[in-house]
Structure formats: structure tokens, C-alpha cells
Design brief:
alpha+beta, 24% strand, globular, four-stranded antiparallel sheet, paralog of FGE (formylglycine-generating enzyme), 6 helices, 296 residues, 2 domains
């Protein structure tokens, strides 16, 4: 029946907190009360055997606020991407950044947007049925909700339009903004691999929901083992939108999807697999994961 209050000025993330804590009493069992973002949110994490992940990390349960995002600091590095269709390979150098430990849930999405677009409902299920435009608008909306500078600059007609109904290419990034954004596909693959070099970061049935074990439906986030950097559901459950255009010369404005989904065969659930989709298309196996840049 002990709670530990971690002061985390500046909105630093749960996974990297180090420092002093204040002991306070809390009814109902041992809890850890963690400061998620400055002047914004708290998360109540139960410390018992049922709330420990396979790698021993506490799993947030109970009173965790739905709009907070547990962010993992990803180390810098180089990642080599490849495209099976064109047989092209290219390398990208990455600085350190932050990536959400879980895909955005339906509860998070609903609290910020007031919408529940998913075909299968559940607060801790990953939000799906969101197009690329929905995803970038959600990033901006969540940034404003937490008092952060929005990353994406959209024309007023696009910003205020019904989510996903515009096919405009007039969106730019503010590199200096501290708000939420979509990962680039290089960031996504680097984080997915977590220092591994094979097609997956573990045995597929242990780390992912896919056609052979998902029962033809999405599952609550965090239900499978994370990778070595503490990221869950990087493979399987839902595909995740990335910032990048897939191939402008051939597919125009189509954007990149990564990760594989609950209805995909094992082949699609690999770190290197690229998929494309039109930015206004909403599918029941496509969601998103949040990223943030670190201050330079």
C-alpha cells in the first residue's frame, strides 16, 4: 500500500525516469504514481505479479490517464531499409528520438478527438479505421492538449475539415516543435529492430498478434512481449502509419505503413516489410504510434 510519486519536470517519459521519489499512502495495494507530463497527467501503476510484463517491466493499469503516452527514448544509429518491389536499399543515420511504447489506443483517440472510428470497440484496443490525415491531425490535437507545439503545419481549410477528407499535399513539419508526430519509416524500423538483425525481434507467436493467433480481430495493446527496447506490438495487431511518401513517382501521395496486422500472414510481420495506402483511406487493420523529437 505504498505509492511513489516521481517528479518529472519538462514532461520526461516514464521509461527514463531516474531520481528521488516521495512515499505516500495509497489504498488498494502497492502502486507507483508516476508523473507523465509536466502539469498534465499522472499514471497509477499497480506493482504486483499480474501487472509485470514478460521482461519484468510494470504494466500500467487501473487509473492511467488515457491521453498520456509512455514514451521510450530510442538511441541513435544507422538503419538500412529495403524495398522488395524495386530491389532498392538505402541507409539512414538517425539521431535519438522518442517513440510510444504502445500503439495509440481507442481511449486515447476518443478523449482527444471525441471519435471512436474503430470497427471493434474497446478502450485498450488499438485505434484503427484512421487514415493518414486523421493520424497527423490527432498528433497536432494531442500536442495542443498537452501544451506542446504542434509539429504539422496544415492550411486552415485542411486543419478544420472533417478528418481525412482532404487529399492535399500541403502539409509541412516544424522541425523545432516539441509536439507529437508520426515516426519516419527509418525511425520505425530502427526502433522495431532494437539492435537485432533478423526479420523479427523474437518468436512471432510471443511478440505479435497475426492471422495464426489473433482470431481475426485486434487485441489490447501490450498483450505480447516487447522488443529489447520496451516497445510492444511493433509487429502485428495493427499496421502503423509513417510520415513518408511511399513512392511519389509511381504512387503519388500514397504513404508508408509498417508492422503488419492481425489479419496478416507471418510473412508480412517482419521488420523490413513496407506497405502503402492512400492517405484518405481508412482500414480496420491500420492505426498509429506516436513519436517525438528530442531537443537539439
Amino acid at each position: 500500500m505504498l505509492a511513489r510519486l516521481h517528479d518529472k519536470p519538462g514532461g520526461s517519459d516514464i521509461t527514463t525516469v531516474v531520481g528521488d521519489f516521495t512515499d505516500v499512502d495509497a489504498p488498494g495495494g502497492p502502486f507507483e504514481l508516476v508523473y507523465v507530463a509536466a502539469n498534465t497527467f499522472f499514471a497509477l501503476i499497480e506493482q504486483d505479479e499480474s501487472s509485470v510484463s514478460p521482461r519484468g517491466r510494470p504494466v500500467a493499469v487501473g487509473m492511467q490517464p488515457v491521453t498520456s503516452a509512455e514514451m521510450v527514448t530510442i538511441p541513435p544509429g544507422e538503419v538500412t531499409l529495403s524495398d522488395r518491389r524495386t530491389q532498392r536499399r538505402w541507409s539512414v543515420e538517425l539521431a535519438s528520438y522518442r517513440l510510444a511504447a504502445f500503439p495509440v489506443t481507442q481511449a486515447q483517440y476518443a478523449q482527444v478527438t471525441g471519435r471512436r472510428p474503430s470497427s471493434v470497440q474497446g478502450d485498450r484496443l488499438p485505434v484503427e479505421g484512421v487514415c493518414w490525415w486523421d493520424a497527423v491531425r490527432f498528433c497536432n490535437a494531442l500536442s495542443r492538449h498537452e501544451g506542446l507545439a504542434p509539429v504539422y503545419r496544415l492550411p486552415a481549410v485542411v486543419e478544420g475539415a472533417p478528418l481525412g477528407d482532404d487529399d492535399s499535399e500541403t502539409v509541412t513539419c516544424d522541425a523545432g516543435a516539441d509536439g507529437y508526430r508520426l515516426p519516419t519509416e527509418a525511425e520505425w524500423e530502427h526502433a522495431c529492430r532494437a539492435g537485432t538483425t533478423g526479420p523479427r525481434y523474437g518468436r512471432l507467436d510471443d511478440i505479435a498478434w497475426y492471422r495464426a493467433n489473433a482470431g481475426e480481430r485486434p487485441h489490447e495493446v501490450g498483450g505480447r512481449a516487447p522488443n529489447g527496447w520496451g516497445l510492444h506490438d511493433m509487429l502485428g495487431n495493427v499496421w502503423e502509419w509513417c510520415w513518408d511518401v511511399y513512392d511519389a513517382e509511381v504512387y503519388g501521395t500514397y504513404r508508408v505503413l509498417r508492422g503488419g496486422g492481425w489479419f496478416d500472414e507471418a510473412w508480412s510481420c517482419r521488420a523490413s516489410v513496407r506497405r502503402r495506402s492512400h492517405p484518405t483511406l481508412r482500414l480496420d487493420d491500420v492505426g498509429l504510434r506516436l513519436a517525438r523529437s528530442l531537443a537539439r
